[in-house]
Amino acid sequence: MSRIVTLVRRALPTVLVGVFAGVAGVVGSFAVAGYTPTFVVSPVADLLRTVMPDVVVRYAITVLGSLGQQLNLLTAFLLVIGGIATIAALSLFVGQWLTNRALPVVLTTVGTWGMAVMLTGSLLLSLGAGLAAGAVVLLAVAVPSLPIATGIDEDRRTVLATALSVLGLSAGGYVLGTQRTTTPESLSRTEQIQRLLDDADAKSLGVTGIEPLVSETFYEVDYSAVNPAVDGDDWTLTVTGAVEREVTYTLDDLTSMQSEDRFETLRCVGEDLNGHKMDNALWTGVPIMDLVERANPHSGCGCVMLRAADDYYEEFPIAAMENGLLAYGMNGTELPRAHGHPARALIPGHWGEINVKWLTEIEILDREVDGYWEKRGWHGTGPVNTVAKLHAVNDLDDGRTEVGGHAYAGTRGIRSVEVSTDSGGTWTEATLSAELPGDDVWRQWRYAYDPPTGSHEVVVRAIDGTGARQSSERSGAFPSGPTGWVAQTID
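Above: the chain sequence. Below: its structure as tokens.
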């Protein structure tokens, strides 16, 4: 037993240096690649997503929400760090065995570079991971020979020096990597865009605790753990499949066409009933069907597949695209990378999953096939369910209680929102924000009342533009989106 403990103690400094080299390798990759698909962690996260059983994916979406993707990314980080750490530690052990100090540095650098190349396919950018990991190992083998007068033994000096070097590398790598993340540039902001944004600001009810009519932060749900970094100068969109002729467009083609500015709301099919994955923005783009019709489509099933730069794909009826927009701008700026730069689809009234980002292909189909999420049991390509969300509870200066939120029913619109302060016994109509121009836009609602003594339950429900009341039947997000009335107990 004591011999095992001794071996572990001897090996521990080498293992720790290996871990530090693993962290350095990830940081080095980030420094040269940024948070892009060529970042060494990205392909591992994508692989985990691909091999994960559907039931696990469903649990992550419906129970963990955004945390599920973050855990997937964290796992990918740990696996990559562990892989580089193993390479570095084995290289150090080989060097110790052969009493060759140069060999561990070479083996770590080349081994880490080779691992990164296999993962990312990039010979040049993979050098960032290899050189950073090799630098840590170089320091580890160099420290014992340095003439440093200290009471710290050799192994501890090595571990401490490499740990400090990783801290420095991490700071520098973070700065370099974040500089590679582009920020959206302003479009030529027309009077129309400014007028529409000002109009939305004026129509917001100003309820504390809820987003204004144009969301300040827009939710993000992606198929990939790391967003594609698509260069607008190289990007093309092609209409393919059951067409008389294929047609390809560049970003310059789009921006030279007559543009439209539209308010449109998006809602995630996998969110909680009263979740926050529903937002609104002012989008700039061109009608999708103007692009499709130039190819003279002749689908045998009346359906289409949209494909993205990150290999995501979704199928739905062509009829749903009739009022669709191919957007390249958002709130007066270029479309941000996180929301599909350089162009994305906006399909009015449908769940967020078919509003494909980083769009590269519109394939007209002759027969129906399942999209990515439909293969996993979801049925989110249909029109959104009506919902009234309750996100704000405020105590007013006059002693009343104010509740508020947003209501959304896709292209059906919202006619009214009703509020009950006695668990559904009686109902009163809430105040609605004035409508924004557009066929697919949410509305804010607000209601103030004199609260009863003690706790009470507030329930809200919406009535859409056709006069249909939001369903009271509660269901989870899977497979067709959440339904039910939102209720909250207020003390």
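The chain has three domains: 2-179, 191-376, 387-490.
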